[in-house]
């Protein structure tokens, strides 16, 4: 037996017990006549004591030679500590060691295995197994596991069946590039790794599975912006004989359950907002509604007043920053600089202060009377003490820029509180999205999403106006889930492919299996997928997913610990009948 207890378990009530512990040496304190060792495992830290008066010379020697991260086993008696440590759950006791066994020695770790480590990100990634010993990482992985358990518990109770779908498949268009795998047995041919199990879960519905879920790895070869991973995990779900309403209700309960189970927080409201409304009010299809600062459109109030910077623009729009009327010129200039950075790309900001005494003062006083500015205040919801910030330009671009500023200020003013949860559904997404690069329409969600029946007539004339039965679940400014009601008949699916620029031959070659299946009795169905990594991070009160993944990749898609991707041997290439020629 290696241990009778864990290192996080013993308390004063255990005084007098003979115990056995195993773990890692966190640190030692050697006073010559006494040696203390902090022994760590997954569950906590327990202090060991070696005392010259109560132990052999040989053991004292052995104890003083212990190095950091040695793996040891000890036996001894639980005794009451003379100087207790109230900050540690085990801080009232220590183990008077009678036996010590070194199970494995360790090299000095390249960084300290402490909550506040001296190791930089790169080093910690290279030695991720050491990083995982640290509480901040370890606790996140434990948290992730807890969320996964709750996911399974809830869905199983609701009658969902977990089905695994294959990883070596054919392209599923979720809007990213595929990772591909060469096939040895089928010369010159490649599998694609799933960007999601989308087509399979639909086929499971045709197969009568009715309620499906899977916690599943998905793969997308995208440029890795700050917080993306080339392989990530989804909670993938699909239901048959459902309408949009059924799905929204089911997954509202699901989300409510998770937040309650892992955070103890009751979320009651799941407001719904159309895509158009979200864009107008927040400039964003995933608004953080933990705080206000809704957009106020000022076209009718700000144009044609002689300020021609505004006159020529498609949209003039502002927000009220609570309590910021007291900002100095310098502080406002800083915000102006912030929006002018290339990442945001705005041309500038017009400001108006709604002073505490009720007077108004702006950077454009030459053109606007106090009366005018009062109207701006009303439109943006500004109260005395607030600062109104206004942007103008192309509607979509300006909304996006103002949204970035709103989030920036939300952070700066501490309005995005980690322990508050504000979910909402964004519904009625456009079916199609114009792509400037390829000069054609793409499916905004994916090509299997059903258009709203009443909008189908617009497909030929105004395709950009067609709305989809698609929805996103947004939590604290992040899209945590998205899905749609699917097309379930061959005719509509073929029409959709046609509008997306597929020839009938191309559609058949890529998705013939799905359209065939639709001919054999496909039930109406729909579903949703949650980004599991992000969901866990948000529930954990953080916005970066990396620490919640045991072995993440870096921004260039590399696993620096195992050093992948890597070249493969000539023999392997030969077997695959492939030659690498780098261009
Ligand atoms: N497959 C979709 C996605 O990965 C989700 C869905 O429509 O259920 O975004």
Report on this model:
- By secondary structure, the chain is α+β, with helices and mostly antiparallel strands.
- Helices cover 28% and strands 24% of the residues.
- The protein contains 16 helices and 22 strands.
- The chain has helices at residues 57-64, 121-126, 128-131, 135-157, 198-206, 244-263, 275-282, 299-302, 308-311, 329-340, 370-380, 395-412, 490-499, 504-517, 532-539, 570-576, and strands at 18-30, 34-41, 44-51, 71-80, 93-104, 161-162, 180-182, 190-192, 211-219, 231-240, 272-274, 296-297, 315-321, 350-354, 360-362, 387-393, 423-427, 432-435, 440-443, 470-475, 478-485, 525-531.
- The strands form 5 sheets. An 8-stranded mixed beta sheet has the order 6-9-10-22-21-20-17-11, with helices on both faces. It has a 5-stranded mixed barrel with strand order 1-2-3-5-4. It has a 5-stranded antiparallel beta sheet with strand order 12-13-16-14-15.
- Helix 4 (135-157) packs across helix 6 (244-263).
- It is globular, with a radius of gyration of 30 Å.
- It starts with 17 loop residues before the first strand and ends in a 7-residue tail after the last helix.
- The model has no long low-confidence stretch (mean pLDDT 95).
Q: What bound compounds does this protein have?
A: aspartic acid
Net shape: globular
- DSSP summary, beta strand count: 22
Summarize model confidence as the mean pLDDT. Answer: 95
CA gyration radius, whole angstroms: 30 Å
N→C terminal distance: 59 Å
Percent of residues in β-strands: 15-25%
Largest sheet: 8 strands, mixed
Q: Please tally the helical runs, counting DSSP H or I stretches of 4 or more residues.
A: 16
**Low-confidence region ranges:** none
Instruction: Give the oligomeric state.
Output: single chain
Alpha-beta content class: alpha+beta
How helix-rich are the residues, as a percent range?
A: 25-40%
Spatial strand order of the main sheet: 6-9-10-22-21-20-17-11
């Amino acid at each position: 037996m290696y241990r009778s207890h864990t290192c996080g378990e013993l308390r004063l009530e255990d005084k007098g017990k003979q115990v056995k512990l195993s773990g890692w040496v966190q640190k030692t304190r050697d006073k010559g006549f006494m040696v203390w060792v902090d022994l760590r495992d997954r569950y906590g830290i327990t202090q060991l004591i070696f005392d010259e008066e109560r132990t052999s010379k040989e053991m004292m020697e052995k104890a003083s030679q212990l190095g950091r991260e040695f793996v040891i086993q000890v036996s001894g008696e639980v005794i009451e500590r003379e100087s207790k440590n109230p900050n540690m759950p085990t801080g009232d006791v220590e183990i008077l060691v009678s036996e010590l066994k070194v199970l494995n020695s360790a090299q000095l770790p390249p960084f300290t295995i402490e909550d506040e480590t001296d190791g930089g990100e790169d080093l910690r990634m290279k030695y991720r197994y050491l990083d995982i010993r640290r509480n901040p990482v370890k606790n996140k992985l434990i948290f992730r596991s807890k969320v996964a358990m709750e996911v399974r518990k809830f869905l199983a109770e609701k009658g969902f069946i977990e089905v695994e779908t294959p990883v070596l498949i054919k392209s599923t268009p979720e809007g990213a590039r595929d990772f591909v795998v060469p096939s040895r047995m089928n010369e010159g041919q490649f599998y694609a790794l799933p960007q999601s199990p989308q087509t399979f879960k639909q086929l499971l519905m045709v197969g009568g599975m009715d309620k499906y879920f899977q916690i599943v790895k998905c793969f997308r070869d995208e440029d890795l912006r700050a917080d993306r991973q080339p392989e990530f995990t989804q909670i993938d779900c699909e239901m048959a004989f459902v309408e949009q309403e059924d799905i929204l209700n089911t997954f509202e309960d699901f989300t409510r359950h998770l937040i309650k189970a892992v955070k103890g927080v009751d979320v009651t409201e799941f407001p719904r907002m159309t895509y158009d409304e979200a864009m107008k009010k927040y400039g964003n299809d995933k608004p953080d509604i933990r705080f206000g600062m809704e957009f106020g459109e000022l076209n009718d109030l700000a144009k044609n007043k002689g300020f021609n910077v505004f006159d020529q623009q498609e949209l003039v729009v502002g927000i009220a920053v609570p309590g910021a009327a007291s900002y100095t010129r310098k502080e406002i200039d800083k915000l102006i600089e912030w929006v002018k950075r290339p990442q945001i790309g705005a041309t500038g900001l017009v400001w108006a202060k709604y002073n505490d005494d009720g007077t108004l003062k702006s950077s454009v006083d030459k053109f606007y009377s106090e009366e005018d500015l009062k109207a701006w205040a009303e439109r943006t919801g500004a109260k005395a003490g607030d600062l109104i910030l206004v942007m103008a330009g192309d509607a979509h671009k300006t909304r996006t820029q103002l949204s970035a500023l709103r989030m920036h200020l939300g952070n700066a003013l501490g309005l995005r509180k980690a322990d508050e949860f504000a979910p909402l559904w964004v519904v009625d997404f456009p079916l199609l999205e114009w792509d400037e690069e390829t000069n054609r329409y793409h499916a905004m969600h994916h090509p299997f999403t059903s258009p709203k029946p009443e909008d189908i007539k617009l497909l030929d004339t105004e395709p950009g106006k067609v709305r989809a039965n698609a929805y996103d679940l947004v939590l604290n400014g992040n899209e945590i889930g998205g899905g749609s009601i699917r097309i379930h008949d061959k005719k509509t699916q073929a029409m959709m492919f046609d509008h997306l620029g597929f020839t009938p031959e191309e559609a058949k070659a890529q998705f013939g299996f799905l359209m065939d299946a639709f001919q054999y009795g496909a039930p109406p169905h729909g579903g949703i997928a949650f980004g599991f990594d992000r969901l866990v991070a948000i529930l954990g009160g953080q916005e970066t997913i990396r620490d919640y993944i045991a072995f993440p990749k870096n921004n260039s898609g590399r696993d620096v610990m195992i050093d992948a991707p890597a070249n493969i041997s000539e023999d392997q290439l030969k077997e695959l009948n492939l030659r690498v020629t780098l261009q």
